[in-house]
Predict the structure.
Amino acid sequence: MKISDENLTVPQLVIFIHPCVSTDMNLKIAIGIPAFNEEKNIGRIISALEEFDYEIIVCDDGSLDQTGNIAEKMGAIVVKHEKNKGYGAAIRSIFTKAKTIDSDILITFDGDGQHNVSEIKDVLEPLISKKADIVIGSRFLGEGENKIPKYRKIGIKAITKVSSLSQNLNIKDTQSGFRGYNRKALDEINVTENGMGISTEILMKASKKDLKIIEVPIIINYEGETSTHNPASHGISVIISTMKFTALDHPLKFYGIPGTIFLIIGLFFIVWTLHEFSLHRVIITNIALIAAGTTIIGIIFLLTSIILYSMVSLIREQK
């Protein structure tokens, strides 16, 4: 869809607000859609959501097409980012806006047209019935896995394995953008990532807060893919994010264990160097360099683990 009367060179992100009535209370439900250069999809997504009478808020995240213009003309409220800040920044803006408008529940829903609007009710149900604090629409439950292209399936599973192992998370799809959060989750999770690593950050912080996380099956439409997320940069972003938060959560393990290994290797080569010198009065340069290098690295890692552990412990005590 094109808007011919003006050219808006800014991208989008969408939120939808819907007052939903449960069996015992009125709930204010927000549906947030991060969208970047999605002028081909945003119109039909908004149209599909109209049957639920959602209020739509668009956070413009730097698109160069008519995404924001279209959303605004279809009745959405547009909140602008001056430039593209990334998926994580878009989700963070959604979280902030959802709390500002006193939402009880937030659903995040990708803007590339691959999610099914009818499945929103499946993500909502465990939140409304208070069975979970966070609900993930998983592509690896039910029939959804059969719809995923092989190259994507391998990548998603690899990233999920890395992020799950770091925090002992028993989650099949840590990278799904189709999620639901209750107000407790919104209040207790402070997100900081700008990139794709935010999906892992949220789950790590939710796990630390002992928030209840469950998954429900969803089916993604991959026909005519229009996703703007580069798979390589996505994977790198998630791995870096996972390493960063693991290092902060468990500095003694993250830095201390490899530091100890390097130190042991260094000591072995030091003994070897001294042994050769005592026998032949010759210092073997290669062995000596390995001894010095690994010993220094080991000491640096161990000192880092101790300093970081002390800092993190102090910060936690002051909270």
Observations:
- Residues 1-24 have pLDDT under 50 and may be disordered.
- Residues 251-318 form one domain.
- DSSP finds ten helices and eight strands in the chain.
- Strands lie at 12-21, 26-35, 55-60, 77-80, 105-108, 134-138, 179-182, 213-217.
